[in-house]
Specification:
Two copies of one chain form a homodimer. By secondary structure, chain A is mainly alpha-helical. The first copy, chain A, has three domains: 121 residues, MgtE N-terminal fold (Alpha Horseshoe); 108 residues, CBS-domain, CATH 3.10.580; 164 residues, SLC41 divalent cation transporters, integral membrane domain (Tetracycline Repressor, domain 2), CATH 1.10.357. In chain A, the strands form two sheets. A three-stranded mixed beta sheet of chain A has the order 1-2-3. In chain A, strands 4-5-6 form a three-stranded mixed beta sheet. In chain A, helix 3 packs across helix 5, helix 5 crosses helix 7 and helix 20 packs parallel to helix 22. Chain A is elongated. The first copy, chain A, starts with a helix and ends with a helix. The interface between A and B is large, with 118 and 118 residues.
Chain lengths: 454, 454
């Protein structure tokens, strides 16, 4: 169906195109716009949309399309779209556009909108202030239910949600919340303060957006009031923006845990140079830190060059190091995710370390047994690797055991310590842990081998 | 404040405890219950709660507390709680409880609830059916707005949300949706079919929950209708459950990417044995597959035992392998996340491979240059490692280059191929990629060294 529509657009059949578009969801229209190759057609199709749909579609399309549209539209065409947009979307737009576009956007807005945008731009990135909107329904605590419903109806067109109504006093301080459900079920003559829930859960404008997301997930909110230092209601955060935050934070953690600088743009829209920039510094850092493993190996040259035993020991280095890295990565990823979900905190450090120590004993013992058997059977009998004896297999298996224990302890504690020191715990996951565990496990390995085999 | 309340509970001051509890959010009450040590106090405090709050709190507490409560409550006490719970929560409860508890729950329910629970238990795990609820407001397309509002008020107490009202025809087939906003703004005499949005976006009961989450995130839904094969409305999914799905899916991906079997329980509540079970098989599998790297090394013993060159080459193995693993992990994690967010699909395979090839050329070249310099300067001049010459450094740097190229191509393509074959793409991330890249990079390394140095 998309292809058909795109063909109709290309052949300039605008009337039927309009009829189809106005029936579609704004997010799907945005998707269509992103597939129009010809910039002139793009603008023509966009202009077909009614004003309110246009504003919504404009919020949904990617920044490159937004730029094209802003360039093509006149100030008098752009103005109404900006006015129709929700303030939080308009603020996002201004934050993402280059300076000349921002100028055009602000010039096209009314002075009132311009000043609101400027006010919201001041909230720091990743705080509640940066994702909230000032478009909500507020009623005074002295109002009746009937009057409140009238106010809901009056504001309904211009707010982001009417599902929750916020109650404030004369000084705009938050006093309670009422769901639209309770409002329409209540008797018109009742006072709002009698039916409202006065145990309001709110956050301040500088609360971290991750904390906001955790509260939404804990309390099953649809929207949450945000207040300033004087507890005056200044905005609300809605659940749709929280979903974006949750996905963004998970993406960020996954990126960092893979040693990649996080990037908000979709992969296919990110330039090769930007990808290089996001990946190269981490790889370089990790590569240079491998100098230590290299040093340990060359300092143990007499051990590793020691005939058939040397070859066996050398051939097992990748196995020991990889398994150590994987074991540490398992622990660190589990803890990093636990921190993100609010399940684990720094004060649990010793509980976590004890648990991982017990796990590492179990994992280490079972893996050492398998490792011992594997070396004797697979390497020794099947592949006939030289130097395989019960003694050498036992040394390698014990090195495996100690590597696992070290890896788990390092892997579980570093993310918690990082969190305490206000670093991103995800940085302390996989590649970083691997590098540390490599060094420690090689030291143990060479120490055991030197002590018992030479 | 929590500690104070817990103290009051311990000293059995139930009346003030009740006064405090009824003012709190159910999720916070659940948290309190989880901190009560004495099982008798737990039950006593729970019984203080009004019926509707009790049901909500019961949905929020962890399964171990649910078990304790079910055991302690009589059938006549348990029944009303089950009836008050949302059906989707009751179904989750039945799914998580051991058989004897399930029996008690079902015996305590009314025949009607029992049959609904049994019907919903049949929907497969991780599908729309498994997370939907049958408690929504539906109106007929022939009804007036006024009558619809009456119906909303009548059902309001017993549905999960009234924010969206669903319009069906005589055969219960979905025809449209109306937001509560449009409903209260419309004239009472209008027909519902005139104000409803008849371009309904819905899903079927067997749609994967990940797909549902993607639709919520794309369309900013608060709730979404779920239909059977005949397009009859059978339930709705609400955004609070979708947030849980999004967090669960991200946790699952992170687990799998770290080589850990996913686990829904919070870390601190998971037993040591269960953690061992979730981690050991992966480590064993990966350890055994390291047999190949071991074989490659022992087959190249003449190269690696070859005096000073051999030691230099051996000492650089960890660096080459780790950097390859990290480079591959970067690509696979990026693509796995892109697949999860719906940004990348299998049909983009060649676009992705081309992009990663270009990235790998940039990363490979820059890293090879740094590697060449690092070996000459750090290893050669600073640490005086023997065997460092321009020729040997150049061989190692070129091996680094080819390793990066191979790692990136393998890392980006395997997750997409896994997705196409209906495997979990996340399995094709870090530890798995590392193992494959280890083998390939060692082969290239030994081939280059043998060809040019011997």
């Amino acid at each position: 169906m998309y292809d058909e529509l795109l063909e109709m657009i290309e052949s300039n059949k605008l009337r039927p195109v309009k009829q189809i578009l106005v029936e579609m969801h704004e997010s799907d229209i945005a998707e269509i716009l992103e597939h129009i190759e010809n910039p002139a057609s793009l603008v023509k199709v966009f202009k077909l949309l009614p004003k309110d749909m246009g504003a919504q579609v404009f919020s949904y399309v990617d920044t490159d399309i937004q730029e094209k549209l802003i360039t093509a539209l006149s100030s008098s065409e752009l103005g109404p779209i900006i006015e129709e947009m929700y303030i939080d979307d308009a603020v996002d737009l201004v934050e993402e556009m280059p300076a000349n576009m921002v100028e055009k956007i602000l010039r096209a807005s009314t002075p009132e909108t311009r000043s609101t945008i400027n006010k919201f731009l001041k909230y720091e990135d990743s705080t509640a202030g940066s994702i909230m909107t000032p478009e909500f329904v507020d009623v005074k605590d002295s109002m009746s239910v009937g009057d409140s419903i009238k106010r809901v109806k009056k504001l309904a067109e211009n707010v982001e949600t009417i599902n929750v109504v916020y109650v404030t006093d004369g000084a705009r301080v938050i006093k309670g919340v009422v769901s639209i459900r309770d409002l329409i079920l209540a008797n018109d003559n009742k006072k709002i303060s009698d039916i409202m829930n006065d145990n309001v859960i709110y956050a301040e404008t500088d609360t971290d957006q991750e904390e906001i997301a955790r509260m939404f997930s804990e309390y099953d909110f649809l929207a949450m009031p945000i207040v300033d230092k004087e507890k005056r209601l200044v905005g609300i955060v809605t659940v749709d923006d929280v979903i974006d935050v949750i996905e963004e934070e998970a993406s960020e953690d996954i990126s960092v845990m893979a040693g990649v600088t996080p990037n908000e743009k979709p992969y296919l829209k990110t330039s090769v140079f930007r990808i290089w920039l996001n990946r190269f510094p981490w790889l370089m850092l990790l590569m240079i830190s491998a100098t230590f493993t290299g040093l340990i190996i060359s300092k143990n040259e007499t051990l590793l060059n020691n005939g058939i035993f040397g070859i066996l020991l050398t051939s097992c280095i990748p196995m020991i190091m990889d398994t150590g890295g994987n074991a540490g990565g398992q622990a660190s990823a589990t803890i990093v995710r636990g921190i993100a979900l609010g399940d684990v905190e720094f004060r649990d450090l010793f509980k976590v370390m004890l648990k991982e120590f017990l796990v590492s004993l179990l994992v280490g013992l079972s893996l050492a047994v398998v490792c011992f058997g594997k070396i004797l059977l697979v390497d020794g009998v099947i592949f006939g690797t030289e130097g395989v004896k019960v003694g050498s297999a036992a040394i390698i298996a014990s090195a495996m055991f100690f590597t696992i224990v070290i890896a788990k302890i390092v892997g579980c504690s570093l993310p918690l310590i990082a969190k305490k020191l206000k670093f991103d715990p995800a940085v302390m996951a996989s590649p970083f842990i691997t590098t540390i565990v490599d060094i420690l496990s090689l030291l143990v390995y060479c120490f055991l081998a030197t002590t018992f085999l030479m």
